[in-house]
Each structure stands twice: as structure tokens, then as C-alpha cells.
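Document type: protein sequence-to-structure record

Subject area: structural biology

Format: plain text, a pair of labelled lines:
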Amino acid sequence: MKVVLFCGGYGMRMRNGTNDILPKPMQLVGPRPLIWHVMRYYAHFGHHDFILCLGYGAAHIKNFFLTYQESVSNDFVIHGGKVELLHSDISDWTITFVDTGAESAIGERLRRVRDHLVGERYFLANYADVLTDAPLDEMVEQFVASGAAASMMIVPPQSSFHCVDVNSLGEVKNIIPVSRLPIWENGGYFVLTPEIFELLPPGGDLVEDACGALAAQGRLFGYQHGGFWKPADTFKERAELDESYSRGERPWMVWEKALR
């Protein structure tokens, strides 16, 4: 399946000051940027055809792949002055770079790459800033079996805040951590059909407009994942992932298990 990655937003919550012009997908986790980790995840499950919806910071993303150094994340041997790679990351990847505008909403970005998805019965989509160890094959299999028009991975709430049950007199009756509430939130991993385009108005949003309409029709499938899921929407969250990487705790790097 083709994989659409939304990587053109400003990512203001990630930026470490006004002089930090690096787009969010290019912020590092270990020696590689976030977008690489997301793409490597999909490639592990056999999905190597990527469509990048570019906008803000597009040049940084293009230059990363135009000057890609395989040796950064692969073992190699130098013999007779030549480098022999023992493994390769992106040699079998196809990457289509599309300018979808710096100000576009997610749904509009998807509309602008529609021509690159002609003939696809299903395709995958992702915000390019969330890492997980979810079994993608199972996610796709359950979606197809459901007969729904779209699917989103849903995860338990990640907030550390508390909800307060209070009456009209201001008396607090109960305090409940958000993480214990019987609710789910959007995990940012989508499996979609071309029908999604019929529900996307110009300038619209993928979740609020298209997925919302399908939910009202009972045609949106939610894949429940209780395993590892970690967003990198803020500088703090990205730093936590980077620290986890440095400790060798990398549950999202499911491809490493396959190499052992």
C-alpha cells in the first residue's frame, strides 16, 4: 500500500525558540529524524511507497533524502577504499515529494495528493510525528474485515492531568486521572479507502470532516492499541523519545527485532 505522510505543518509546539527553523518531522530521535522512524516502521511491514505532503520546511526534508547517508544507521565494511553496506534502509523505497502548501489543513493536504493515489483500493496515512509498536498487519487485516470506509488507530488517553467531578455548589465528589477514563483518543495511524475524498471539502480536516461523517454513518473503524504509543508533538516529548533511544529502550523500532 502507498503511505501518505503529512509533514508540512509549522510544528510550533516542537520548535525550541524562534531561531529553530527545522520542521517537526526533521527533529532528531537518535541519529535519525522523526520522519525516518515513521517511514522505517512502514517499510518493516512491506510498505515502501511514500507520498510526502510537504509545506513548511520542505527543503530540509528534500535535502535529507537527496543527501541520504546509509552508513549513519547501518553497519558497513571498508575494503580497498570502498564502503560495503551490510544493510540498507531506503534502497527499495519510492518517495514522492509534493508541495501541499504551508497553511493547508490535513484534509486539504490529502486532497492535493489524490492524483498520486489513483487505482489504490486502500492506502495508509500518518501525521509523521507519532511512534508506535502496533502490529500494522493486524491493523490492516481487521479494517478490511470490518468493511468500513476508513480506520484510525485509537489509544488510551496519555494526559497526566486529572478530571474533577464537581457539583453546582463547588463540592468536589471525585478526582480521576485522565488515563483511567474509559475513553480513547486518535492515535494518528490511518487506513483509508478512496471514498474518503468524497467527504473532504476544500480546506477541510481529515478527522473532523471526513472521519466525523463516517462515524455518524457507522463506517469508521477504530483499531484499539494498548501497547507502546508516543507522540512527538512538543519539544519535551521529542526529547523523551531521544532519551529513551539513548538508553536502548526503542519499542517502536520493530525492525530491530527482525535483525536479531
Notes: The chain has a mean pLDDT of 90. The helical segments are 34-44, 58-66, 106-111, 136-146, 206-217, 235-246, 254-259.
